[in-house]
């Protein structure tokens, strides 16, 4: 509902008559703004899909922003150390390093959560600082430029026009689609819901709960690594401060998208739409020319309203269903 | 609900895509021609950039009276320092139809691509305070950061009689302008055999974080005799005035910036010299340069050096009154009443 409201308000506010041409133009509903919003949302959405898996399983991953930073910095440092190589190899090595480092981080998170029996909130709170600290030490706080082929890939226009870059949008849609299929159409995905719904019952049912919990942390970090690959390529550099605070946006996107922090509930498409909602609100603030200083207040309030509205309508739906069944 | 909401939202997304495909064009507003300048500083929680905003808005208002255009300032500064968010804001400004952008880069590597994209789409970009020299920006207004670092250390050495241990308070380690200032401090310190650099202390660029870093470092190193502060963050708090480790008789501070809350440090003798950046002029000069370059098609230099003001007890009153004239509301009346 808020997504619709935000889009409608922005569309109305963005429309005006150009004094030179006399044509009605719109600063919101134009290809550049929409692709920009998709690009801004892509990092939160891609990471949100991974984070949603963790949340559905009943855990939380606070380290995704730090995984984003360490993956990007590792990739940039590796490519700088290797020096100029052919563009295809540059992209392949960059992607492999980004995803490899991210998987290693996910493995560490998962192993500590299942091995030490400590809640994932604490483990990932710790690794959030550890990973970012390692990125800081490795990079000496430099902003490390990435080779041009990575930027060419992330900003490829794919025939849409020179200043339009659909790659982040396509990556976001692809990750959401894969996440949706994994959760809804595969046995492993259904197991994640089962573990989040009731871990004890799942264990007695013969599910390998620890392996499933380990798996969701791998997914979460893997999506953070992919987001870092696209982000570092798109913006042209990687630093240890990249992704600072992203964990909260990512969790917010998942929750607004319908994930329950109690576990057992959530969707990949929901996480993507949650991320888009946050970005639409941000864009609406620009288009409506509201004071930037109120951005946090507006976003925070809108997120609370979105979740409350969602819960209220869920309760209404449940009541209607109950009435229909009893009637 | 989980099934219905994504469907509704997908319909909206489809509507958006259809609108996108139909094409759009940004433009000005009705009536008197409007010229909108996006101002993207590093952080809206750093007071120095609020002076820049005040300067920009005042210059815009003044020029709007005399020129045939309405000049407005679009304040797009992120709440916290983040090069990625700045890059996003640059693209948003272009998409929103802003006519020019004024920017202070938190991370030159992150914003260079976005600046070049903006310029390619016909939106000129001017930098102030922190440059992105590899980009296609048309001008930069600010201090020579390397020289500024040298000056901070040179002043501090004079206060310390050319000997003692010095700590550097250095802010955000990713900001290229601050890295240059640190380099300048180190290069200058190397000229004094009696001066030792104890360490470089980075921190989040908020007054509390900076003050906490100074207190932590002072607690751990009681032999620090001088602080070379390449930004004034820590002096925006009163925390250092009352700390027993920072006795003005034993420790001296020389800092960049001299805003209202920092003036008590000059009066107390703890910071006998402040090197003030006239932050108000970041906005004022940048707006005037943009108008000259873009609307009046005048030749503008690529580098506009900013002159620093040396603030000591000798000119504390004059400087306080200058801050007041720029719209400062946090200058103690004690300093405004001083004769000099």
The helicity of chain A comes to over 70%
How would the global form of chain A be characterised? globular
Rg of chain A over CA atoms, rounded to whole Å, is 21 Å
Oligomer: heterodimer
What level of helicity do the residues of chain B show?
A: 40-55%
Most extensive interface, residues per chain? A-B, 64 and 59 residues
Q: What series of H and E elements makes up the topology of chain A?
A: HEEHHHHEHHHHHEHHH
Question: Whole-number average pLDDT of chain A?
Answer: 88
Class based on secondary structure composition and strand pairing of chain A:
mainly alpha
Give me the number of helical elements of chain A: 13
Sketch the topology of chain B as an H/E string, one letter per element. HEHEHEHEEHEHEHEEHEHEEHH
Low-confidence stretches of chain A: none
β-strand percent of chain A reads: under 5%
| Strand portion of chain B | 15-25%
> How many helices of chain B in DSSP terms?
11
Instruction: Give the rounded overall mean pLDDT of chain B.
Output: 87
Amino-to-carboxy terminus distance of chain A:
30 Å
Query: Which stretches of chain B are low in confidence, meaning pLDDT under 50 for 5 or more residues running?
Result: 9-30
Could you describe the largest sheet of chain B, including whether it forms a barrel? 6 strands, parallel
Overview of this protein structure:
The complex is a heterodimer of chains A (327) and B (340). Chain A is mainly alpha-helical. Chain A has helices at 2-14, 31-56, 64-82, 87-116, 120-139, 148-154, 167-185, 187-197, 199-204, 209-235, 246-256, 268-287, 295-326; strands spanning 15-17, 24-26, 144-145, 237-238. Chain A contains 13 helices and four strands. Chain A has a two-stranded antiparallel ribbon. A two-stranded antiparallel ribbon of chain A has the order 3-4. In chain A, helix 2 (31-56) packs antiparallel against helix 12 and helix 3 packs parallel to helix 5 (120-139). In chain A, 53% of the residues are buried. Chain B has helices at residues 4-22, 47-66, 83-95, 108-120, 145-159, 176-189, 207-220, 263-268, 279-295, 316-325, 333-336, and strands at residues 34-40, 70-75, 100-103, 125-128, 139-142, 164-171, 195-202, 224-229, 252-256, 273-276, 303-305, 309-311. The interface between A and B is large, with 64 and 59 residues.
């Amino acid at each position: 509902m808020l997504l619709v409201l935000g889009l409608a308000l922005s569309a109305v506010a963005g429309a005006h008559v150009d004094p030179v041409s006399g044509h009605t133009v719109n600063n919101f509903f134009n290809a550049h703004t929409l692709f920009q919003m998709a690009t801004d949302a892509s990092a939160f959405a891609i990471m949100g899909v991974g984070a949603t898996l963790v949340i559905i399983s009943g855990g939380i991953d606070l380290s995704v922003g730090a995984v984003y930073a360490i993956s990007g910095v590792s990739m940039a440092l590796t490519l700088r150390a290797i020096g100029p190589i052919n563009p295809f190899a540059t992209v392949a090595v960059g992607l492999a390093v980004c995803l490899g480092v991210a998987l290693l981080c996910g493995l560490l998170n998962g192993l500590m959560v299942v091995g030490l029996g400590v809640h994932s909130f604490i483990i990932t709170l710790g690794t959030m600082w550890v990973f970012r600290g390692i990125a800081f030490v490795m990079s000496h706080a430099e902003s490390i430029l990435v080779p041009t082929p990575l930027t060419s890939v992330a900003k490829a226009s794919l025939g849409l026009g020179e200043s339009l870059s659909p790659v982040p949008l396509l990556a976001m849609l692809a990750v959401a689609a894969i996440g949706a299929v994994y959760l809804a159409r595969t046995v492993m995905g259904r197991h994640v819901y089962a573990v989040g719904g009731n871990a004890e019952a799942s264990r007695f049912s013969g599910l390998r709960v620890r392996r499933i919990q380990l798996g969701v942390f791998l997914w979460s970090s893997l999506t953070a690594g992919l987001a870092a690959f696209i982000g570092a390529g798109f913006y042209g550099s990687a630093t240890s401060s990249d992704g600072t605070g992203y964990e909260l946006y990512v969790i917010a996107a998942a929750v607004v998208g319908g994930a329950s922090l109690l576990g057992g509930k959530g969707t990949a498409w929901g996480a993507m739409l949650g991320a888009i909602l946050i970005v639409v609100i941000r864009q609406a603030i620009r288009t409506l020319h509201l004071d930037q200083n109120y951005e946090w207040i507006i976003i925070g309030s809108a997120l609370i309203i979105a979740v409350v509205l969602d819960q209220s309508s869920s309760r209404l739906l449940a009541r209607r269903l109950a009435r229909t069944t009893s009637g | 609900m989980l099934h219905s909401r994504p469907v509704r939202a997908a319909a909206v997304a489809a509507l958006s895509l259809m609108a996108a495909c139909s094409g759009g064009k940004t433009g000005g507003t009705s009536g008197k021609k409007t010229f909108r300048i996006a101002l993207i500083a590093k952080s809206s929680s750093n007071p120095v950039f609020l002076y820049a905003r005040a300067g920009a808005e005042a210059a815009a208002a003044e020029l709007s009276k005399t020129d045939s255009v309405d000049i407005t300032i679009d304040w797009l500064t992120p709440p916290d320092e983040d090069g990625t968010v700045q890059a996003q804001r640059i693209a948003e400004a272009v998409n929103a139809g802003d006519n020019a952008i004024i920017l202070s880069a938190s991370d030159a590597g992150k914003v260079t691509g976005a600046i070049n994209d903006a310029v390619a789409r016909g939106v000129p970009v001017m930098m102030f305070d922190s440059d992105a020299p590899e980009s296609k920006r048309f001008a930069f207004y600010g201090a020579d950061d390397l020289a500024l670092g040298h000056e901070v250390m040179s002043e501090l050495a004079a206060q310390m009689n050319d000997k003692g241990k010095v700590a550097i308070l250095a802010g955000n380690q990713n900001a290229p302008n601050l890295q240059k200032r640190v380099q300048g401090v180190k290069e200058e310190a190397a000229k004094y055999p009696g001066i030792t650099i104890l360490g470089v202390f980075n921190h989040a660029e908020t007054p509390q974080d900076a003050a906490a870093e100074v207190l932590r470092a002072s607690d751990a190193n009681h032999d620090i005799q001088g602080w070379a502060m390449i930004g004034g963050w820590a002096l925006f708090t009163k925390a250092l005035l009352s700390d027993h480790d920072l006795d003005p008789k034993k420790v001296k501070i020389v800092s960049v910036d001299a805003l209202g809350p920092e003036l008590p440090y000059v009066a107390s003798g703890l910071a006998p010299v402040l090197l003030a950046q006239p932050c108000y002029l970041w906005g004022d000069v940048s707006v005037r340069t943009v108008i000259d370059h873009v609307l009046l098609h005048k030749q503008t230099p690529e580098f506009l050096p900013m002159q620093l003001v040396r603030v000591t007890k000798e000119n504390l009153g004059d400087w306080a009154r200058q801050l007041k004239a720029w719209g400062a509301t946090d200058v103690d009346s004690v300093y405004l009443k001083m004769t000099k």
